[in-house]
Specification:
- It is built from two helices and seven strands; from the N terminus they run H-E-H-E-E-E-E-E-E.
- It is mostly beta strands.
- It has a single domain (2-158), classed as Immunoglobulin-like (Sandwich), CATH 2.60.40.10.
- Strands 1, 2, 3, 4, 5, 6 and 7 form a seven-stranded antiparallel sheet that branches.
- It is elongated and about 45 Å long.
């Protein structure tokens, strides 16, 4: 039953990322885009009695991209678990819109051990006149459970 639940939960997470609009751009935005998810929000879409905290590790995950000026963006993300894990990681992929799809132009990974939380922050110089976003991969392992999920921000335009 635990394995079936894990597969169903993984499918729900993947579908939520796939069904997210690919290019949600607001020309009047404050040049910041973020994605914040919690396991509780996923529980509302499935049977809460079946979603026990010992079936998963990642409780909350976040990623953000921000225009900090001078053709630079700040990438930030974190992963929070419901207990100490052997490994907790966050990977941020900086992506640029090429007119028809997103292409990854940089990947940055942070990993921590024997903790329930990990985060990463990176400043990257980018080319102007493009849309950018962050796609994040969050993972945790406690020896018996390997848990992972994804998120993606909306796009920001660097002019």
């Amino acid at each position: 039953m635990r394995k079936v639940f894990s597969v169903i939960l993984l499918i729900l997470v993947i579908l939520s990322v796939i069904n997210t609009p690919v290019l949600a751009v607001n020309e009047d935005s404050d040049q910041e885009a973020a994605a914040h998810h919690t396991r509780d929000s996923l529980k509302s879409e499935i049977n809460p009695e079946e979603a026990k905290s010992d079936d998963y590790l990642i409780e909350e995950w976040y990623c953000e991209i921000r225009d900090i000026g001078n053709d630079q963006v700040s990438l930030y993300g974190w992963t929070r678990c419901n207990r100490d894990c052997d490994t907790v990681g966050v990977e941020l992929q900086l992506q640029r819109w090429n007119g028809s799809s997103w292409s990854t132009i940089g990947t940055y990974r942070w990993e921590a051990f024997d903790t329930d939380y990990n985060w990463g922050l990176r400043t990257v110089t980018v080319s102007p006149d493009y849309y950018y976003r962050v796609k994040s991969y969050h993972y945790a392992n406690d020896g018996s459970i390997h848990d992972y999920t994804y998120a993606a921000t909306g796009a920001i335009y660097i002019d």
